[in-house]
Design a protein that fits this description.
Elements lengths: L17 E5 L6 H12 L5 E7 L3 H4 L7 E5 L5 H7 L5 E4 L7 H13 L3 E4 L2 H9 L10 E4 L3 H8 L11 H12 L2 E4 L4 E4 L4 E4 L11 H15 L4 H19 L10 H6 L1 H7 L3
Parallel strand pairs: 1-2, 1-4, 2-3, 4-5, 5-6, 6-7
Antiparallel strand pairs: 7-8, 8-9
Helix pairs in contact: 1-8, 4-5, 5-6, 8-9, 9-11
Length: 276
Amino acid sequence: MEILKKRDEKANKGTYGKVIIIGGSLPYIGSVLLASLGASKSGVGYVALGIEKKLYPYVAGKIYETIYEILSSFSDIKTLKKIVNKYNSIVFGNGIENNKKTKKALEFILNNYDKKLLIDATGLSILKSLNINILLKTKAKVILTPHLKEFSSLFDIDITNKNALDLTNEAKKIARKYHITLVLKDFNSYITNGDKFYVVTSGNAGLAHAGSGDVLAGFIGGLLAFCDSDNVDIAFFGHHIFSLSAKYLAKDISLHSMSPVEVCNQIGYVLKKEKL
C-alpha cells in the first residue's frame, strides 16, 4: 500500500492540499491545537483552524504553522460558505460543544460539502442529534472515528458484553449501510468501508491519555487532504503510523508519562524509520 508518495522536488505548499479543523471551545482549547499539531505532521501543505472569534486570543501563535479562519459563531453560515470549499478535507468536532450553533454548522457542511469530511469527538454526538440518516444524503466522503462508547451511542449498539459482540461484522455492516469509512477505536482498532477491513494492533496503553484521539484525527485529516488512495486505506495508514509512534516512544519513556504531543512528535521519526 503506497499512501505517501515521494515528495516532488519542484512542488510547493499548494501541491499538498489544505485541511481545516473546525472545532474548539473555551473548556477544550487544547483539542483543536492537538488536532492541528497532528495535521502538521502529515505532510499536508496548509493546516487551518476554523474557530469562533472569542477563541482566537487563546490559540493564536500556539502552533506557528497554523492559519486561521475566524467565525463570529459556528452558526455563521455566511462565513462557512466562504470557507469550506477552499479545503480538500475537513476535520470537525474536536473540543467543540454540542449546541444549536454547532449543530447548524455540521448540518450545513453535510449538505454542502462534497470532499473528505472526518467527524470526531463531540462532532459525533452532534451528528447523532441531527439524525444519523443525514449520512445517506450527504455528498461528502465521510470518515467517522468513534471510540467504542461513542460507537455504541451513535448507532444504538449494546456493548455491555463487548467480548460477545462481533465487532468485525458490526463495523462492516454500519460502514456499508451509511456509505462511510469507520475507524472504531479500542485496544485493537477496526477500520472499514464495508468492503475493505483492517485491524490496527500496534498501539499500547500509553495512548490512553486525553488528547490522543485529537492528534490522530488531525493526522488522518491532513493525509486525506493530499493522498489519492481510498479513504479506508488512508485511515488505516494514519492510525497504524500513529500507533507505531507510541510503540517506538515506549522504548524510551514510561507508558505512564507518555503524552499525545510526544507521540505526535515521534511521527516523523517513524516515517523515516519505516522508509515512508
